[in-house]
What we know:
mainly alpha; 997 residues; 0% strand; Serine Threonine Protein Phosphatase 5, Tetratricopeptide repeat
Amino acid sequence: MKKTIFVLFFALATHLTMAQRTVYHHQPGKLFNQGKEMFLEGNYTGAQDLLSQFITESTDRLLIEEAKYMMAVSSFYKGVKNSGERMKEYLDEYPESIYHHQVKFLIGSYHFDEKDWKLARFWFDQADLDYLKPSEQEDFSFRSAYANLQLDNKDEAYRLFGLLSQNSKKYRNAGNFYAGYIDYTNGNYDAALRRFEGLRNHPEFGEQVAFYSAQSTFFNNKLDEAIRLADSFLKAYPRSEHNTEMYRVLGNSHYRQGRATTAIPYYENYFGSTARPLRGDAYFMGLSYMEARRFNEAVQMFQKAVGERDALTQNAQLQIGQAQLKLGQKQQAQMAFEAASRDNFDPQVRETAMFNYALLAHETNFSVFSESIALFENFLKEFPNSPYTDQVNDILAETFLTTKDYQAALAAINRISRPGRRILEAKQMVLFQLGAQEFINGDMNAAVQHFNNSIALGNYDAKARNNAYYWRGEAYYRMANYPNAASDFQAFTQNASPADENYAMGWYNLGYTRFKQNQYSSAVTAFQQYISAETNRNRTEYADAHNRIGDSYYYNRSFAEAERFYTTAATINPSAADYAAYQKAFVMGLQRNYQGKADALDDLMRRYPQSQYFDDALYEKSRALVMMSRENEAINVLQQLVSGYPNSALSSQAGIQLGQLYYNGGNYQNSISTYKNVISKFPGTDDAKTALLSLETVYSELNDIQSYVNYANSLPGGMRITVSRQDSLTYLAAESVYMRGSKVEAESGMQRYLQSYPNGAYHTDANYYLGVLADEKGNKQQAATYFRKVADANSAKYLDDALIYVSAIEYNNGNLNQALADYSRLANSARNQSSQQTGQMGVVRTQYRLKSFHEAARAATAFLANANLSPEVTAEARYLRGKSLQQVNEVEKAMDDFQSLAQDTRNIYGAEAQFILADTYYRWKSYDKAESQVKSFMQKGTPHQYWMARALIVLSDTYRAKGDNFQARQYLESLKNNYKGSEADVQQMINERLSNL
């Protein structure tokens, strides 16, 4: 039974369904009507199903157009993702549709929902409000207004929101809020507040209204009301995203109301909750901290206020300077004042900053590029009526004395049309300092000129005048102008106070100038004055003065007095007692105490086996032994000298003496051999000629004149026994012309002599004088050719001078291997200490240029072991050793040399050493040491400003490494503005770092 019922029901349902399809198929209009009814009821899914079937079955074009409209619109209301494209397709198909205004409005609404404000406004502009339904008109107006607001088309947005606030029930509150917001953004705060008045408790707009009301009141400068509203906002909305701004309003309002202490906690909340605080509020916060005497925090806040170049940045930099002064950080304060003085957004700030900047540069001697002078000058020009004017005038004179750029100081002084006494005092000292600088640089002529100008000013600065006398005397002495040097040292000692640091040395130098002029009695007087004035008896000069007094007595043949002073000198300075011991022994010989002389010389050689006087001691001992008729002992001593010191200047004389002793003892063959050895080793010298004449005596004694003639005729030039002595006469005639000063004629005569006698007895002499003449004419290469021939001849008479010249020429021409060979030969064969030191220093320089850094360091160490080196060559040797040790990664050892050099920044080695020390500390990440080193350098100052610039770049790098980008930029900006050098590398380093910061 049940089964039958089921079957019947199923059949009935099937029948009904088929019947229904048949009805619909034949009635498409009914599908349209039902679909439209569902569309109007908002059943967009049902409407789309029926209208889609209708379009498939119908042929009614008008109804199909309307059906497609409803389907496209339904996709929008359903929120279909591509509904906008469907509506645009509808318009493409039916551009004249009666619904095109509604469709364009909805396309705009589609883009509005997508927040594509430009497209939304475009489609809204295509629709006509009058063709829309009233409900659509309200939506249209709001959406169009909002899109215009988002596109910053505030005028149109404001018009539409205003209409909505008046005419729309749905959007009245929104219209008032957004119109009020536009009033707020346009600065119409009273209008905004009127709009917001009725919305304070609105559930959607209440929080925003409370926020913008507080802001509007704040911007209207109604600060008490703003404080009340901001406090209320924080209590009502403790988690609002606007709380950060409310803290700012409270901090700013309290500060402007004169309650800086109250403002600080609000500002701290503000700065603690924003990554990008407003610069103006950072400035106010800094001022609040200043009032609370929290200067470190104030500096940090003012740094946040620094940004683009404007009045706020200028004021903030001024305040940074003031805060850092309170912290005792004068160098940082100076940098901040400098930054504030660069701009003129606020002339009063510029005036104050410029004055403080220049004042600090003067007070701290922290004007590395002499900017304080220019600043004071510019200040007086720009602010002639400033209350600081009198103070600036007084300070300017002092500034000339503290700057290290004396050329800039002199130029500034010379620009003053009517300098007063203080300025002239400064000028006299500046001229002296310029002379001292040229003296350090080795330009004695320029130094003398500056000292002349300083002395010529008179007695404005007595100390400067006296110092100019002293150092001009030093310059004249180094130029071998001993009379002028003596005059200056005499003037210095007469005028200087005994408390003057150079007073004692003035007498010492005066003694030397007298000694060099063979004025031995006057020299003794001056040296004794030095001994009386010198308070430091450990100075090498103190012992040396005793030696020179001994020498003076010796030359005046007061031998007992000479011996007494030599003994005292040896006692005072045992490290240099070999000279005194030698001279004392020599004096004993002059007093005919030959045994005492021999004993003293033995004692010298035993105590000082490395003494430079060892060969002299051997020679003088042999003479003492001869005087005591102990000729066999003398022969042994001379043999020791000849074999042990073959390059000694005494070797040839010892050979002649030895030959004579052999002859006296009847040992003719040894005598002949010895004389021939002298002739062979020292050809062309006077000693060689003496040896040849002595040979004639020996061969005569042997009755073997033919052997002598054969030997003499076998010698290369000049020694032949000939009837004519034309070679010597030719040379002597040319030499005589040279001595009379007729240099052109002398040159011609010397050249004729060499053409006739290329290997003559005087060919070495002729080549030497031709080299001197060529050098005097500036023909360096031709002079080098002549001096090379002298060096190759190995003539002891001229060897030192020749090697000094050719080695320098080869070095300067880049022939470094040949230069090294020449310098090494000079260092090993020089006849005096000065030439030896020239050779040793040449070896150091050449090894360094050859990049033989191990050898250069070793050579420099050996050179620095010399006593009595000048400060200039000592500095260069230390510099080259330090640079060489750097290259072989022995940096710790190198640092010792650079530390020593850095003490004197007047020379270029000291200036570069300061940079190297700072740069090394930076590379070692010892940032505090690097910072301290550069600041010490800045305090010392230097005329070598390239290295100062490089050091300041290291300082900037150091600050950046320490995380202080503000200070890093400050130093770079200062360097960029004040450094006058044009080196491309410095400018590139500055610009690269500034761009990275």
